[in-house]
Amino acid sequence: MKRLYAQTPALAKPSREDFLAALEDACRAKVSELVQAVLIAEVDEFLGRLRSERAGARSGYRDGYEAERTVTYGSTPVAIRRPRVRGSETRFESQILPPYRRRFEDVDATLHELWIQGLSTRDFEPCLRALLGEQTPLSPSTISRVNQQFHDDYEKWCKRFIANEFVYLWADGVYLGTGPGDERRVMLVVIGVDRNGDKALLAIEDAFAESEESWALVFESLKKRGLKDVALLVADGAQGIWAAFSKAYPRAKQQRCWLHKTRNVLDKVPDRLRTQTLAKLREIMHAESREKAKSLIDALARSLERNYSKAAICVRDDQERMLAYFAFPKAHWKHLRTTNIIESNFDPVRSRTDVCKRLRSGTSATYLVYALLVRRTSRWRKLNGHQELQRVHHAMNPRRLATRKAA
Q: Which of 68, 102, 136 is the last residue before a domain boundary?
């Protein structure tokens, strides 16, 4: 029987490799077309007219295109020709694709994120060349320049105004194994909690020592940026920090970290007594009242002073600062006895910086620590008993509270 419809000729099925290559070419062409259209629209907006409209009295003319260049967008290198403008009173600068730019910002952000996560600058090219294409610049010097662009974020953060009113501060100097071998640098870190119970990273500064001068610069900077009053600072036993803080915030109370105190005492007793001494120190730290803590301190010191006088002196040393947290709500004691809020956040930071022994400058180390800590701030929860922070804040500013009530 005669067929009513002619047979459709069978098409040759392309191989998987040919299909993927054709698909990649089509995607690249479409991305290039879209980016080109956006660049032309940017010029139209700058000149205030479409290409088909006459210039009239307006200044500025289209002047063709620059030479074609390859720009990396995502994992797709695309060919772009930037439009040129002449005769304009104001110089035209593309915000989408600035001059000499060979990557879009999302690519730079990805490279920067990989560096923070631990990818060495020398490992970018062998790891990412197949993904980003042969034209994408991935040399160690390129990655260093990419990271340098993001240093501006840290500089702006250091100068930002502190709008919130903070109640407690924690400060500590953290030593990292980065930088030149003959320079033992320290990161001066300050974390605060505001009257709503939210924790915030307030300062990170690179220094050579925890001296009074170094800490004075940190606290003076905080004051200039809006941190006027606080109720309490929690820090270790370094005298430099207390001298600098006393000058900057003379009305605030001061609490020494019990973890640092414990380490200092245990360092002065033999191994056979450390477990017993540690248990007694923890009993003091968790005492229910200031009077009970003082009696336990006296008992422990008397038991040690005959054979281990240095340990006894260390136990009795600076009791006023060691027991300052008793003046605040009990729900806050857990947070105020130690600088754990800083040390716990630096454990994962060290796992990253320990592989960066070849960081050659304190600036690079400071920025890396800043980037890692800022990422962790999203996981921070409110302070225990944050409902009572308003009361603590009002107690340290009674005049301000009276003025508000009168108004």
A: 102
Q: Is 146 within a domain?
A: no
Q: What is the mean pLDDT of residues 304-325?
A: 94
Contact 235, 241 (CB under 8 A): yes
Looking at per-residue pLDDT, the higher value among 375 and 199 belongs to 199
Domain count, the chain: 2
Residues 79 and 169 in one domain: no
- With respect to residue 78, please indicate whether it lies within any of the assigned structural domains: yes
Is 128 in contact with 356 (CB distance < 8 Å)?
no
DSSP per-residue string spanning 133-176? -TTS---HHHHHHHHHHHHHHHHHHHH----SPEEEEEEEEEE-
Which residue type sits at 252? A
Most confident of 21-25, 47-51, 126-130, 210-214: 210-214
Could you identify the residue written with the tokens 């000499």?
Answer: 100
**Which residues form the domain of 75?**
18-102
The answer to whether 297 touches 343, Cβ cutoff 8 Å, is no
Q: Are 316 and 265 in contact (CB under 8 A)?
A: no
Interatomic CA distance for residues 40 and 19, integer angstroms: 32
Instruction: Point out the domain boundary residue: 102, 120, 144.
Output: 102
- The residue ranges of DSSP E strands in 7-75, in sequence order, are 61-65, 69-73
Query: How many other C-beta atoms lie within 10 A of the C-beta of residue 250?
Result: 7
Same domain? For 81 and 229 the reply is no
What's the whole-model pTM score? 0.72
From its phi and psi, is residue 132 left (phi > 0), alpha (psi between -120 and 50) or beta?
A: alpha
136: left (phi > 0), else alpha (psi -120 to 50), else beta? beta
| Separation of alpha carbons 4 and 321, rounded Å | 101
pLDDT tens by residue, 320-366 = 999 999 999 999 999 999 999 998 888 777 766 665 555 555 566 77
Query: Are 373 and 239 found together in one domain?
Result: yes
Let me know whether 383 and 282 are in one domain. Answer: yes
Q: How confident is the model at residue 250 (pLDDT cuts 50, 70, 90)?
A: very high
Q: At residue 269, what are phi and psi to the nearest 5 degrees?
A: -125, 155
Question: Are the C-beta atoms of residues 227 and 166 closer than 8 Å to each other?
Answer: yes
Residues 90 and 161 in one domain: no
Q: What's at 31, amino acid-wise?
A: V
CA 280 to chain centre: 38
Per the domain annotation, does 348 fall within a domain?
yes
